[in-house]
Amino acid sequence: MERIFLSPPHMSGKEQEYIAEVFESNYIAPLGAFVNRFEERIKNYTGASYALALNTATAGLHLALRVLGVQEGDYVLASSFTFIGSVNAILYQKAIPIFVDSDESWNISPELLKVAIQKAPKKPKALIITHLYGQVCRLDEIIAICKEEGIYLIEDAAESLGATYHGQQSGTFGDMGVYSFNGNKILTTSGGGMLVSENEAWIAKAKFLSTQAKEPVLHYEHKEYGYNYRMSNVLAAIGVAQMEVLEQRVARRREIFELYQKNLCPVNEISFMPEIQDSQGNRWLSTLIFEKSDPLKIIALLEKEHIESRPLWKPMHMQPLFKESLAVEDGTSEKLFQQGICLPSGSSLSNEEVERICEIIRSTL
Ligand SMILES: Cc1ncc(COP(=O)(O)O)c(C=O)c1O
Fold first, then answer.
1. Which of 56, 83, 282 to mutate to test the pocket of ligand 1 (most atoms within 8 A of CB)?
2. In whole angstroms, what is the distance from residue 77 CA to residue 70 CA?
3. Which atom of ligand 1 is nearest to the CA of 131?
4. Is 203 in the same domain as 88?
């Protein structure tokens, strides 16, 4: 039986045509017409005014911190319940993370965020929030707190491209936002990221830093250090083709989620990641928790059937890497981690496959 993956790439069919155009132009290089086109597509779709195509979302978060002036010894608040890629950039800047636990939305708790700000040894410079598994955080409250406290807001929308809150795209609420096009995301360029902002100067600065901070003169002149973080034209061609099907991908992931819900909700002990009011997640991954059953056993049983599933992200405050770090936590994400799993959610999954997965889960409970 063919293996069912968690979230495999799903091509639109146009990718090879666009890659062929790149080859014809011989712009097999970082930068070229498709990089600009990809940035335009993201701006048009999300409503962001400025966008910068990068080789990863991690690079985007690093540039965001650097552009916003986060330096050695600065404090940066962050969602604890996330993937390490959200927070590694804090360490790249030699800044100090303070992790904040989740609430019943599974995303960062605005109430605990306030506590974390009060407890911080000095005023934090920035907050990185993750819209986990494609569902948006309680943005109204978070934005209000950041405004009141004078803290920059960075949205890690790596998993949430296409998700909305009050009809506005995730990633466009904060000072800066990032999307990921890693191989398992709702759209993929095999690897890639996009930094967005309403601030033209910040994106210009990020662009400068992402191309080795070369001064705008003919020879190679450098006054500060930069990075090699831009996206290649070949990968941007894949991105342009992928953008053409984003709405379909969101719709299909939501359908898959609803099918899981329909088939598994009758089981009393199962509950799914919620969606906050007036929001629409992209349901990048369908995720659920079991009240009684051991998720590791279910993962192992699915594996026997060649079906990939995974535990939820292990919270950052539980990671050995951050054992000395400050955290404001109340056990919420720890419980989610211990009780939850991510189910196969790729947009190419068939209804029959979803039903088969549900059947296996039901039969094991
Ligand atoms: C929440 C989150 N943040 C950041 C990243 C990092 O993205 P990238 O792999 O594009 O660097 C990912 C996924 O890879 C992610 O899921």
1. 83
2. 12
3. 1
4. yes
The verdict on 344 and 215 lying in the same domain is no
- Count structural domains, the chain: 2
Q: pLDDT tens digits for 171-227? A: 999 999 999 999 999 999 999 999 999 999 999 999 999 999 999 999 999 999 999
| Of 136, 176, 182, 316, best ligand 1 pocket probe by most atoms within 8 Å of the beta carbon | 182
Distance 85 CA to ligand 1 centre (A): 5
Is the same domain home to 77 and 101?
yes
Q: Is the CB of 257 under 6 A from ligand 1?
A: no
- Summarised one tens digit per residue, pLDDT across range 138-161 is 999 999 999 999 999 999 999 999
Beta carbons within 10 angstroms of residue 73's beta carbon: 10
Q: What is the pTM of this model?
A: 0.97
Q: In degrees rounded to 5, what are phi and psi of residue 257?
A: -60, -45
Long-range contacts of 24-27 (CB under 8 A, 24+ apart): 27/233
Instruction: Clarify whether residues 233 and 263 are in a common domain.
Output: no
Domain end, chosen from 217, 243, 269, is at 243
**Residues 232-280: tens digit of each pLDDT:** 999 999 999 999 999 999 999 999 999 999 999 887 899 999 999 999 9
Among the candidates 212, 243, 274, a domain finishes at 243
